[in-house]
């Protein structure tokens, strides 16, 4: 009996309970699903490569379209126009020995005066609009934005009569001030957006420490506003350097003509030397290119300042 009971107990101990559930086994991944996943990855890579390649092609095309005119101008300025296309520097010698260098100095003088006027007025105005609350600030700022939309040609006749009555026709510093005044609205708009992006806590902390508002403007905001000021200065320089209308009307005397005016009137109606025209055009464009290349990073920062937080 003992052996029989032990045998029965042994047999019952090895039985598996009916309520126990067998472990779940994940179904094997089908080859078709793996093929679809791999195909999707390959498709994503192909689309990414296609978009990147298309972007590069477009950028290369734009760069080629920008550089091609410069290459053409350099080629024409260094070759003879007798059909042989021989290399010569006669056009550059004629341009450098003519009136263009003096006209370039006058253009530089007018541009520097205009930049000084713009920065000295626009920085103060922008600081006031951005960090000082006063009655009528919003309507005044709206008026400045509206003035940006008004073409300068609409009031140039009035300006000419005023300059004529004051005896300022042919006065280089006065024309530089005129250039600066016409660009103050745009400069104020750019600098105001930049100053608004600077935290107000800087002003509050400086005021608590005993600094006055002029001190805050001079010691804190001007150093921080260098990218925006460079942006305004470069854009103003390019605009004044290439302008023709104001310089033609307000600086009519031969000794006070700017580079653009001299370039416009250098060619006789009966003769047209392509080599000298290309050389003069390159000489006029070189300062703008150099300024833009030197300050391109500051220009990017200044133009995008205040657009986000």
From TrEMBL:
GO biological process, one term: transmembrane transport
Gene3D superfamilies: MetI-like (1.10.3720.10)
Composition bias type Polar residues, residue spans: 1-16
Subcellular location: Cell membrane
Alphabetized Pfam families for the sequence: BPD_transp_1 (PF00528)
Tagged with keyword Acetylation: no
Bias kind Low complexity: ranges: 19-34
Transmembrane feature ranges: 54-75, 106-127, 139-157, 177-195, 277-295
Superkingdom per UniProt: Bacteria
Domain ABC transmembrane type-1: 104-295
One GO cellular component, as annotated: plasma membrane
The entry's keywords: Cell membrane, Membrane, Transmembrane, Transmembrane helix, Transport
Region (Disordered), start-end ranges: 1-39
Similarity section: Belongs to the binding-protein-dependent transport system permease family.
PANTHER family assigned: ABC TRANSPORTER PERMEASE PROTEIN MG189-RELATED (PTHR43744:SF12), ABC TRANSPORTER PERMEASE PROTEIN MG189-RELATED-RELATED (PTHR43744)
Protein name: Carbohydrate ABC transporter permease
Organism: Subtercola vilae
């Amino acid at each position: 009996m003992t052996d029989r009971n032990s045998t029965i107990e042994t047999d019952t101990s090895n039985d598996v309970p009916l309520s126990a559930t067998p472990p779940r086994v994940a179904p094997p991944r089908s080859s078709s699903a793996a093929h679809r996943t791999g195909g999707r990855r390959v498709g994503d890579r192909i689309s990414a490569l296609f978009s990147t390649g298309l972007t590069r092609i477009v950028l290369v095309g734009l760069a080629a379209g920008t550089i091609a005119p410069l290459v053409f101008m350099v080629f024409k300025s260094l070759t003879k126009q007798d059909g042989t296309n021989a290399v010569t520097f006669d056009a550059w010698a004629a341009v450098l020995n003519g009136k263009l260098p003096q006209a370039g100095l006058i253009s530089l003088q007018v541009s520097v005066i205009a930049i000084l006027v713009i920065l000295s007025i626009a920085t103060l105005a922008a600081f006031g609009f951005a960090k000082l609350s006063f009655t009528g600030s919003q309507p005044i700022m709206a008026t400045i934005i509206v003035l940006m939309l008004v073409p300068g040609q609409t009031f140039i006749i009035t300006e000419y009569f005023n300059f004529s009555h004051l005896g300022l026709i042919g006065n280089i510093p006065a024309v530089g001030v005129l250039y600066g005044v016409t660009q103050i609205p745009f400069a104020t708009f750019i600098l105001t957006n930049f100053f608004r992006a600077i935290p107000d806590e800087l002003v509050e902390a400086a005021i608590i420490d005993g600094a006055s508002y002029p001190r805050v403007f001079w010691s804190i905001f001007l150093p921080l506003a260098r990218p925006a000021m460079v942006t305004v200065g470069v854009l103003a320089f390019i605009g004044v350097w290439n302008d023709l209308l104001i310089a033609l009307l307000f600086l009519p005397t031969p000794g006070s003509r700017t580079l653009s005016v001299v370039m416009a009137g250098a060619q006789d109606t009966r003769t047209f030397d392509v080599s000298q025209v290309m050389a003069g055009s390159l000489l006029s464009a070189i300062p703008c290119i150099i300024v833009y290349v030197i300050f391109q990073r500051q220009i990017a920062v200044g133009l995008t300042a205040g657009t986000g937080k």
